[in-house]
Every structure is written in structure tokens, then in C-alpha cells.
Design a protein that fits this description.
- The complex is a heterodimer of chains A (about 130) and B (about 120).
- Chain A has about 130 residues and is an alpha+beta fold.
- Chain A has one domain: Thiol Ester Dehydrase, Chain A, CATH 3.10.129.
- Chain A has two helices and five strands.
- Chain A has a five-stranded antiparallel sheet with strand order 1-3-4-5-2.
- The longest helix of chain A is centred in the middle third of the chain and has 13 residues.
- Chain A is elongated.
- The termini of chain A are close together.
- The longest helix of chain B is centred in the middle third of the chain and has 16 residues.
- Chain B is elongated and about 45 Å long.
- Chain B has about 120 residues and is α+β, with helices and mostly antiparallel strands.
- Classes of the chains: A alpha+beta (about 130), B alpha+beta (about 120).
- At the A-B interface, helix 1, helix 2 and strand 2 of A face helix 1, helix 3 and strand 2 of B.
Chain lengths: ~130, ~120
């Protein structure tokens, strides 16, 4: 089981990630999403930044997650404004709740994604389901 | 407004998953390597849940006339999208709950793959 006191814990901000036209275009192209230079990024694009924050949680030895036993259970993005090319984004993840039952940890997380001015761009909420080996 | 919105069918290939893995930074081999997928009890390679959610966002962009209108999007990943060598497809249909809120039905091979996928548009 993961650390039972995990709920409420926050992790440091991820390294700044600069949104480039080339990267947004490749993300959009992978799902056939129409994208023209100057368009806002697709609505699920911030998973790239949120994923880096989740990696911090999952690789922290004091948390106790076994990477190969984690399933992505749920994901939500709530926007203040669309992501645009040129944004420099960081994510700060907080564990908002932990439920532990029958060998399964259900870890709810919320990552605040902010721009280079410290303004909130969106909140990415993920539920990770961790099963005992 | 049209209700429900027209349904759309999107082909999904393994090459799409390889491209998505590279673009999203999620290299988990269960999305690319059939042997690894089978070793963890899956029938074959499965799509990333986020790949399917990205398709849902694409559907909404197409239906509402362009990107940047989504204020909120979320779903549970309830059932995997299995992608055999020959590929598969995902079908999506949207129903307006109110003038800003769309409920989606997202299916693959006749089964719902996302739980309660909902999109809220900017006011």
C-alpha cells in the first residue's frame, strides 16, 4: 500500500515546459485533430505537463507506488483559458484524497497548471488506481 | 440546435498510438507492444485512455466549429480500446444537456469505453 498519510501532500512545480507549434502540431496529428498554426492547443494537450507532475509522484520512493501497477482511472481538465504556443507552463500536483480498500489505492490528484506570469491556465485532475502486486 | 449531434467514427491504428506515445511522452509499452500487453493480461495492445479522450475533444471541436471552446472535459476510463494489428475504430455521439454542456457516448466494438464523458463549453 502507498503511504497512508499521502492525502494533502503537494509536490514541487515541474520544470517549465515551453509550448511550441511543432509539438502541438504533432500532438494534434496523432489523433487526427485539425490544427493550424495560431490555433489554441487541443483540450487534452496539458496532459503532457500534468504527466510530468504525476511522474514525480509515482517515482518518489517515500510514496510507495509501483509504477507497473498503476492505471489511469479518470481525467478532467478545467480551463481558465486555452493553452497557446509560446506559453511556458509548470504543474504543481497535490494529492486531494486517498482511499485504500482491499489491496487497492485510489489516489486523487489535482495539478494546477500555471503560465510564466504565475496565472492559472487550467487544473488537471487525475485519479490513479494502484493495485497491490 | 441539433440533438443528438451526428455520430462520427474514427479509425484507430497502432501507428496512431506510436505517434501519440511520442507526442504525449507516455512510453508505456502496453500501448505499443502486443507481447507486453498480453503479459499483463490484456487481449492485445490498448489505446492510451488519454488518446480516446483526445478523440472526444476532436469530435467536440469538429461539432462546435473549431478549437479553444472547451472549458471543461473529463471522463472515467472504464473499458480499454483494444487495437489489433488490423486496427479498430471509435464511435462518438454527443447529446446536449443544456446550451453549454455536451454528454458524449464513446464506444468501441459496441462497448462504452469512457464513463460519463462530459464537455462544458465556454459561455
Amino acid at each position: 500500500m502507498v503511504d497512508s498519510t499521502l492525502s494533502g501532500r503537494s509536490f514541487p512545480a515541474t520544470a517549465p515546459f515551453e509550448v511550441t507549434d511543432e509539438h502541438v502540431a504533432s500532438f494534434a496529428a496523432a489523433t487526427g485533430t485539425p490544427y493550424q498554426p495560431g490555433d489554441p492547443a487541443p483540450a487534452t494537450y496539458p496532459i503532457v505537463i500534468a504527466f510530468a507532475a504525476m511522474q514525480q509522484l509515482m517515482s518518489d520512493p517515500t510514496v510507495g507506488i509501483e509504477l507497473h501497477h498503476v492505471v489511469h482511472g479518470q481525467q478532467r481538465f478545467t480551463y481558465e483559458r486555452p493553452v497557446r504556443v509560446g506559453d511556458r507552463l509548470v504543474a504543481e500536483l497535490t494529492v486531494t484524497s486517498l482511499r485504500q480498500l482491499a489491496g487497492t489505492d485510489i489516489i486523487a490528484t489535482s495539478s494546477r497548471i500555471t503560465d510564466e506570469h504565475g496565472e492559472l491556465v487550467c487544473v488537471a485532475s487525475a485519479t490513479l488506481v494502484h493495485k497491490e502486486s | 440546435m441539433t440533438n443528438p449531434l451526428p455520430s462520427r467514427t474514427y479509425p484507430v491504428t497502432r501507428a496512431d498510438l506510436v505517434a501519440y506515445a511520442a507526442a504525449s511522452g507516455d512510453p508505456n509499452p502496453i500501448h505499443q507492444d502486443p507481447e507486453v500487453a498480453r503479459s499483463v493480461g490484456l487481449p492485445d495492445v490498448i489505446a492510451h485512455g488519454m488518446f480516446t479522450l483526445a478523440l472526444a475533444a476532436r469530435y467536440v471541436d469538429e461539432q462546435v466549429g473549431g478549437p479553444g471552446r472547451i472549458e471543461e472535459i473529463g471522463a472515467k476510463f472504464t473499458h480499454p480500446v483494444v487495437v489489433p494489428e488490423s486496427g479498430t475504430s471509435v464511435e462518438i455521439e454527443g447529446t446536449w444537456r443544456d446550451e453549454r454542456t455536451l454528454s458524449l457516448t464513446v464506444t468501441c466494438a459496441g462497448e462504452k469505453v469512457l464513463g460519463n464523458p462530459v464537455v462544458v463549453l465556454r459561455g
